[in-house]
């Protein structure tokens, strides 16, 4: 059995596959219906309107509907697109066992414990027929896939087949008046719509399930008598054919396999059994340790089955569907239907070569697993799982194609065998961990012991083997018996070599590792769904297939999607833009693809810029993904030529430093924000003319004045002062006067606005005595005094040394694409040049005031004053309509002065592909850390973590002071940095919290507990519990140790809280005894457990509860106490209790019944009682605490859905990271959380699988 998907949940009672999508419905005993995507392994939706268990569920074959029936006597029809129940059908008087849609008519059939079967019309929402006849619970009922029949099974020990032909005729529109009259008579006088056709008796106990064969007139049934019976029927009668025995308990469900002659059944004996329907013998049995099976269902079109059990469900296949094949140049050999076939790619000729006869086996999965081909000898080596693993060697004569000549194969044991030379092949002998090299006569040539324990071997060139161990692959030279290379990897399923044998792709379940021929790692690619196959094209690009996509992977690790698949395929060869592949039925297909995208990226990565230029000129490359790729790879100037949208062009122009295109785009967009960003970029490049113009277009006079100050343009600064004066902008006047160092102007402004004391102080400080005397007269007695002992400093800016020119730029090499791309967009360049010479005037243009036709600013002011206006706003200015834009020099396009692009901050690199909350905190991105911890472990109260967050952030950075006037420089500290490290490769952050430190803290906590310092011990253990979410470890083993540490610390925190609570309750001796008893059931270290037992024994003994005290004494003695005084006291208590084995008062404590203690109410939760858990520390609580804050860890919400703590990079797969980061961004947009709060109320999310790491 090949398990494809598994869930953990309450007992699953009903299952149904969707006919087209990779979905499965599971109805649970808890009343919830879950909708899963079994391909992605995620929970899509849940429906929970039923009251009580839901026993039946079924998808409609074509409509977006499903039907469910439960113990609330209701049948509900749901629309999964609308996420709601459409209507409810009422009529049954007891539990509903099964429901099913008809494949053609708008009918639903339901079976119930009210001993009836009902057929409903879901369009009219009425019951159209009631089938009565069973005299006990009807356990199931289903329609025949083709005929007008219904089969039902009941606990009355019978299976009944019902004829619904009359019902079909009744529901059809009568064609003539006679039929219509006949139907009216039937309706009026009464008639039977469905009649019993056969009653099948033979089971000794109640029948739980019955099902039709999809094509043959057969029925299979399973019952509480542990038997499976096969029945045959014809037009007149039905009879028992055979009985299958083997189950050890009630048979829950049984069905015919749609594609093979087998029967599949499951039972309460915790097994699934597969039977040969022809020979009526058992083929295989699959068992679970603790879970009884209740339901089986088969996919209507695919080779998939699903089974529901006590703790969830599994989706599985019975046999592998991947055909075994081997490609050599233009030919391929493959196995189909026990025949070896030959396929020629160039002519697409498919020929049957020879039959592969194999004796009948008594189990599944006996087909060909791998195939190896020796082209020079025309020999075929086929491996399978027959007899625990064996190989077959065929030598094919050249003239035997198409003749189907039968030949006897040379066989031998060994589940893994490959050719290693022209006439030699290697076989892995797992028992001795040796490789046997044999010739084509199947004779042993030599034996070679392998240096590592290996479970499979693959071809790796002449004389070499690629050996798969548990956690790595090894390149082994058979001749020299040396390891040539070694690489850590997840379990490798398939190995794909390039045609030149220089590169190899190692395909795992969810990842692809690409290495060179010496196993030197080149890149790793992660996928969220299963990787099925792959092949190299002629250019060194790996083309691979997942369950639903064909994708590509470049040697540098860049990947993308080529095509979406309806059904999985197995790629055999890639030639040009044609992909050859096999489907699951062994049919060859040729898929034509567009290789332009990945060839463009390949050329770019290999720096074949001539090819890139050619593709830009001749191909229709476009799309946001391509633009983003070019930006990511540092070619925004190339991306610029794919884009016509002005906003995108503007962003790319800024990124590539192309001010000319940015100016043209900003003029087209003409929005304030874009002009501002243009000004920022132009200022970064030192292009003051464009900065001046951008500030002018945004009417940002403050920035314009400051620009004139820092560029030393005092003439224009003085004109800005006059403009501010005309606008009556007092602050603008004062700032400009301050920038100019014009003290008298500042005094004048202060006087005009009535600030005489400030004017007096300004004049006094700057030594203008004449102004001081005049102002002191005006102030009279209000003359302010200067502070004594203070030395005044003059606010006068320094005189500029250089003014007005653009700043010098960094000299770099001319861009690779500069000339070529100019030719590509020659017309666009001419347009840009024309735009560069066009008019830029609008409202207020003071780019170069001296060149304004008709005069400068003074003339404008004079004109306005002549019009009699005392003050004016910008909109009222009557300025000349057109002023020339500052021109970029004619050779700016080909200039060698280019501003360098800034790099990405290290802190941003840390969080790009990380789902580790600690790394987000170290980068200072607290928001995403909050949401990661909320998703992973349900944390909502972040207040206790505030100090840990701040310590972690500050500890991951170093701070340096460069100049006294400059800000402090923050430098990120990387984990594992060395001087030999590549500067372009950034490591993860260095973290101050380390796992060994927590282990030291744990020892201090133990010591404080031993000494009875419970308050100090509790503080230490809580500190550990609050630090663990910010721990990062390197290996999976350490990650498991972190999870174990959470459990250990949680037990101590809970126990210490119970003990401290007991000490507070001095007035309630009964509660004191209960709490002391609960303390002994915390999982403590043995010395502490002895002290807890001694304490509980003492408390109960003093209170007169001798029976309970004796139990503690007995447990204390069983722990073999090393302190003799403890053992002596326990023995004395036992002797005293034996004389009077009674309790004075009754306690809420039963030491015979296993229990856990509620972390909030401190009451026992006995086995079998419902409870809820904290998703972080796993403390158990009574159901009333659902949604409350955990009282043990003080962090997480009790009962919240969580995916599990991620504390190691080894736990993270690429798909999980992508999904998590995407959801963080979605939350960021939708929820807008308060970023500065450490106590966030993050929305609860539904679990997407509940997998831990």
Kindly describe this structure.
- With 1253 residues, the chain is of the alpha+beta class.
- The protein has 31 helices and 61 strands.
- A hairpin with a 2-residue loop joins strand 50 (542-546) and strand 51 (549-553).
- The protein is globular and about 130 Å long.
Average pLDDT works out at 81
Bulk shape: globular
Question: In total, how many beta strands?
Answer: 61
Taking Cα atoms only, what radius of gyration do you get, to the nearest Å?
41 Å
The helix content is: 25-40%
Point out poorly predicted stretches: 186-191, 820-885, 887-897, 1214-1219, 1229-1253
Which percent range describes the beta-strand content? Answer: 25-35%
Feature tags:
1253 residues, alpha+beta, 4-stranded antiparallel sheet, 61 strands, disordered C terminus
In short:
This protein is α+β, with helices and mostly antiparallel strands. The chain is built from 31 helices and 61 strands.
Furnish the topology, listing elements before pairings:
Elements: E1 2-8, E2 12-17, E3 23-28, E4 33-37, E5 42-47, E6 54-59, E7 65-70, E8 74-79, E9 84-90, E10 96-101, E11 107-112, E12 116-121, E13 126-132, E14 138-143, E15 149-154, E16 158-163, H1 165-171, H2 177-189, E17 195-201, E18 207-212, E19 218-223, E20 227-233, E21 238-245, E22 251-256, E23 262-267, E24 271-276, E25 281-287, E26 293-298, E27 305-309, E28 312-317, E29 325-328, E30 331-336, E31 339-344, E32 349-355, E33 368-374, E34 379-384, E35 390-395, E36 410-413, E37 417-421, E38 424-429, E39 434-439, E40 444-449, E41 456-459, E42 464-468, E43 472-477, E44 482-488, E45 492-497, E46 503-508, E47 511-516, E48 521-526, E49 531-536, E50 542-546, E51 549-553, E52 559-564, E53 570-575, E54 578-582, E55 588-592, H3 596-605, H4 609-618, H5 624-632, H6 636-639, H7 646-656, H8 659-669, H9 672-685, H10 688-697, H11 701-710, H12 714-726, H13 730-740, H14 743-752, H15 756-765, H16 769-779, H17 818-824, H18 826-837, H19 857-866, H20 906-912, H21 917-922, H22 926-937, H23 946-955, E56 957-960, E57 969-972, ...
Antiparallel strand pairs: 1-28, 2-3, 3-4, 4-5, 6-7, 7-8, 8-9, 10-11, 11-12, 12-13, 14-15, 15-16, 16-17, 18-19, 19-20, 20-21, 22-23, 23-24, 24-25, 26-27, 27-28, 29-30, 30-31, 31-32, 33-34, 34-35, 35-36, 37-38, 38-39, 39-40, 41-42, 42-43, 43-44, 45-46, 46-47, 47-48, 49-50, 50-51, 51-52, 53-54, ...
Helix pairs in contact: 3-4, 7-8, 8-9, 9-10, 10-11, 11-12, 11-13, 12-13, 13-14, 14-15, 15-16, 24-25, 25-26, 26-27, 27-28, 28-29, 29-30
């Amino acid at each position: 059995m090949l398990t494809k998907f598994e869930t953990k949940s309450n007992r699953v009672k009903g299952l149904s596959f969707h006919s087209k999508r990779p979905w499965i419905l599971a109805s649970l005993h808890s009343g919830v219906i879950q909708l899963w995507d079994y391909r992605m392994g995620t929970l899509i939706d849940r429906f929970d309107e039923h009251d009580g268990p839901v026993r039946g569920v079924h998808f409609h074959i074509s409509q977006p509907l499903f039907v469910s029936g439960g113990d609330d006597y209701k049948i509900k029809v749901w629309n999964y697109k609308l996420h709601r129940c459409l209507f409810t059908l009422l009529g049954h008087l007891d539990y509903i066992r099964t429901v099913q849609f008809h494949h053609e008519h708008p009918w639903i059939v339901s079976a119930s414990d009210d001993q009836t079967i009902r057929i409903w019309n879901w369009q009219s929402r009425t019951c159209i027929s009631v089938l009565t006849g069973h005299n006990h619970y009807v356990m199931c009922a289903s329609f025949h896939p083709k005929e007008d029949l219904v089969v039902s099974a009941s606990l009355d020990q019978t299976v009944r087949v019902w004829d619904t032909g009359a019902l079909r005729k009744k529901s059809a529109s009568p064609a003539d008046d006679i039929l219509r009259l006949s139907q009216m008579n039937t309706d009026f006088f009464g008639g039977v719509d469905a009649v019993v056709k056969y009653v099948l008796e033979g089971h000794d106990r109640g029948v739980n399930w019955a099902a039709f064969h999809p094509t043959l007139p057969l029925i299979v049934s399973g019952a509480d008598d542990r038997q499976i019976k096969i029945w045959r029927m014809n037009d007149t009668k039905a009879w028992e054919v055979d009985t299958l025995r083997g189950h050890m308990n009630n048979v829950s469900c049984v069905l015919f396999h749609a594609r093979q002659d087998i029967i599949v059944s499951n039972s309460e004996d915790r097994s699934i059994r597969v039977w040969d329907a022809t020979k009526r013998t058992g083929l295989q049995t699959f068992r679970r340790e603790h879970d009884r099976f209740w339901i089986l269902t088969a996919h209507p079109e695919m080779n998939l089955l699903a089974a529901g059990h006590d703790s969830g469900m599994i989706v599985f296949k019975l046999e592998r569907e991947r055909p075994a094949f081997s490609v050599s140049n233009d030919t391929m050999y493959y196995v189909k239907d026990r025949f070896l076939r030959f396929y020629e790619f160039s002519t697409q000729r498919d020929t049957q070569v020879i039959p592969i006869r194999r004796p009948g086996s008594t189990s599944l999965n006996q087909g060909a697993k791998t195939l190896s081909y020796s082209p020079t000898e025309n020999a075929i080596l086929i491996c399978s799982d027959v007899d625990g693993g064996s190989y077959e060697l065929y030598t094919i004569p050249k003239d035997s194609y198409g003749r189907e000549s039968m030949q006897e194969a040379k066989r031998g044991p060994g589940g893994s065998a490959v050719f290693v030379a022209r006439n030699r092949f290697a076989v892995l002998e797992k028992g001795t961990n040796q490789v046997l090299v044999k010739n084509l006569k199947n004779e042993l040539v030599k034996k070679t012991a392998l240096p590592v324990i290996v479970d499979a071997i693959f071809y790796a060139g002449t004389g070499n083997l690629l050996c798969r161990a548990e956690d790595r692959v090894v390149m082994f030279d058979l001749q020299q018996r040396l390891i040539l290379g070694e690489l850590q990897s997840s379990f490798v399923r398939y190995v794909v070599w390039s045609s030149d044998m220089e590169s190899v792709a190692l395909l795992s379940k969810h990842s692809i590792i690409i290495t060179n021929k010496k196993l030197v790692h080149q890149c790793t690619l992660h996928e969220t769904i299963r990787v099925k196959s792959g092949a190299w094209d002629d250019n060194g690009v790996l083309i691979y297939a997942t369950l639903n996509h064909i994708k590509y992977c470049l040697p540098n690790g860049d990947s993308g999607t080529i095509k979406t698949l309806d059904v999985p395929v197995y790629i055999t060869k890639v030639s040009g833009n044609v992909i050859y592949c096999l489907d699951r039925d062994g049919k060859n297909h040729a898929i034509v693809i567009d290789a332009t995208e990945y060839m463009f990226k390949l050329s770019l990565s290999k720096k074949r810029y001539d090819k890139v230029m050619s593709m830009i000129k001749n191909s229709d490359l476009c799309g946001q993904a391509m633009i983003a790729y070019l930006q990511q790879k540092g070619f925004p100037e190339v991306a610029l030529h794919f884009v016509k949208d002005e906003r995108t062009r503007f962003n790319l122009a800024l990124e590539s430093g192309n001010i000319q295109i940015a100016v043209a785009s900003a003029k087209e967009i003409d929005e304030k924000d874009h002009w501002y960003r243009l000004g920022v970029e132009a200022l970064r490049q030192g292009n003051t003319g464009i900065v001046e113009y951008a500030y002018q277009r945004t009417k940002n006079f403050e920035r314009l004045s400051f620009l004139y100050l820092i560029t030393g343009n005092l003439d224009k600064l003085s004109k800005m002062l006059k403009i501010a004066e005309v606008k009556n902008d007092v602050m603008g006047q004062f700032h400009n006067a301050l920038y100019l160092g014009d003290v008298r102007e500042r005094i004048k402004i202060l006087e005009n606005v009535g600030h005489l004391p400030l004017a007096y102080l300004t004049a006094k400080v700057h030594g203008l005595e004449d102004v001081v005397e005049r102002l002191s007269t005006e102030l009279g007695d209000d003359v302010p005094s200067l502070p004594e002992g203070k030395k005044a400093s003059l606010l006068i800016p320094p005189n500029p040394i250089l003014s007005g020119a653009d700043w010098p730029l960094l000299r770099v090499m001319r861009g690779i694409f500069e000339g070529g791309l100019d030719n590509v967009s020659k017309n666009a360049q001419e347009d840009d040049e024309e735009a560069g010479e066009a008019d830029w005037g609008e409202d207020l243009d003071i780019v170069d005031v001296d060149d304004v036709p008709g005069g400068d600013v003074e003339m404008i002011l004079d004109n306005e004053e002549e019009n009699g206006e005392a003050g004016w706003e910008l909109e009222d200015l009557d300025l000349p309509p057109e002023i020339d834009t500052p021109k970029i020099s004619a050779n700016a396009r080909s200039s060698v002065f280019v501003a360098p692009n800034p790099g990405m901050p290290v802190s941003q690199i840390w969080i790009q592909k990380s789902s580790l909350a600690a790394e987000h905190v170290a980068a200072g991105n607290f928001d995403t850390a909050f949401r990661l911890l909320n998703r992973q472990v349900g944390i909502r109260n972040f207040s206790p973590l505030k100090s840990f967050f701040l310590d972690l952030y500050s500890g991951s950075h170093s701070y340096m002071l460069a100049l006294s006037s400059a800000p402090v420089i923050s430098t990120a500290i990387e984990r594992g940095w060395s001087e030999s490290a590549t500067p372009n490769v950034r490591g993860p952050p260095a973290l101050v919290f380390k796992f060994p430190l927590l282990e030291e803290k744990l020892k201090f906590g133990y010591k404080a507990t031993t000494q009875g310092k419970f308050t100090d011990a509790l503080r230490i253990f809580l500190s550990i519990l609050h630090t663990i979410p910010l721990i990062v470890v390197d290996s999976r083993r350490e990650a498991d140790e972190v999870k174990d540490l959470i459990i250990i610390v949680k037990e101590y925190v809970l126990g210490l809280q119970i003990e401290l609570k007991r000490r507070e309750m001095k007035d309630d001796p009964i509660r004191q005894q209960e709490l002391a008893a609960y303390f002994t059931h915390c999982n403590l270290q043995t010395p502490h457990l002895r002290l807890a037992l001694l304490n509980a024994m003492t408390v109960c003994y003093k209170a007169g509860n001798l029976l309970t005290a004796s139990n503690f004494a007995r447990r204390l003695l069983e722990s073999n106490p090393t302190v003799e005084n403890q053992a002596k006291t326990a023995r004395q208590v036992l002797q005293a209790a034996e004389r009077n084995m009674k309790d004075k008062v009754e306690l809420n404590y039963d030491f015979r019944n296993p229990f856990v203690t509620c972390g909030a109410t401190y009451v026992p939760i006995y086995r079998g009682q419902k409870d809820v858990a904290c998703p972080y520390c796993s403390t158990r609580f009574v159901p009333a605490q659902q949604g409350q804050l955990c009282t043990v860890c003080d962090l997480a919400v009790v009962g919240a859905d969580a995916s599990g703590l991620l504390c190691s990079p080894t736990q993270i797969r690429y798909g999980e990271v992508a999904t998590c980061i995407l959801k963080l961004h979605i939350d960021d947009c939708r929820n807008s959380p308060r970023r500065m709060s450490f106590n966030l109320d993050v929305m609860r999310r539904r679990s997407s699988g509940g997998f831990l790491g």
